[in-house]
Amino acid sequence: MNLSQRLKLIVENMTPASRRFVALEEATQINAKTWQTWWSRGGRASADMVESAGKAWPQYAFWLVTGIDDFAHGHSSPEYLTWREAGIPVRERTSGWELFQKKIELERCKQSKISGEDEHFLLRKKSLVREVNQLNTLRAAQEKAINELEASSDEDAIRDARSQPGLSNDEVEKLVNEYEKQHRQP
Q: How far is CA 106 from the centre of its chain?
């Protein structure tokens, strides 16, 4: 799957089909017609599209540009949504998602034209730095707790996957293998 195909998968999963391009414009600040042209013509996504999608949905940004997820650190892919739909227990590590959003907001604040001695700007920047630090601490605590829980419950999750009705043995084994690949620490 190439970058444009991955971007389309994110867009399909994160925007309503009935107002897809308007929702994209709202989420990314890129004109709806630009998105619609890219979508219908099947060309390559622009750097601005990739960057804005990564900022809108940072949990998918790493996967979008590399094709590799880093599930253990909050870098997911929309493919996990199909696991949930199939009844496979998925414990996405979402603690990083809010942190990603705040770091993006802090970076925007630093790059904004308002700067210097503007009191509101300085207060907002200070507040964002404090929030990022708090979220870093929270994420570290959540990661520690999740690691402890996962160590004790991997076998239960695999057993649950194997008992899902309506899936063939091959489908179950494929999902279990993917689950094990994503959840085993090196």
A: 18
CB 75 within 8 A of CB 123: no
CA-based nearest residue to 22, from 13, 14, 31: 31
**Residue 132 one-letter amino acid:** V
Q: Is residue 147 part of a domain?
A: yes
Q: Which domain holds residue 101?
A: 95-186
pTM higher than 0.85: no
Question: Distance of CA 176 to CAs 1, 105, 169, 183, Å?
Answer: 22, 37, 10, 10
- pLDDT tier at 87, thresholds 50, 70, 90: confident
State how far the Cα of 162 lies from the Cα of 41, in Å rounded to an integer. 41
Q: Confirm whether 64 is domain-assigned.
A: no
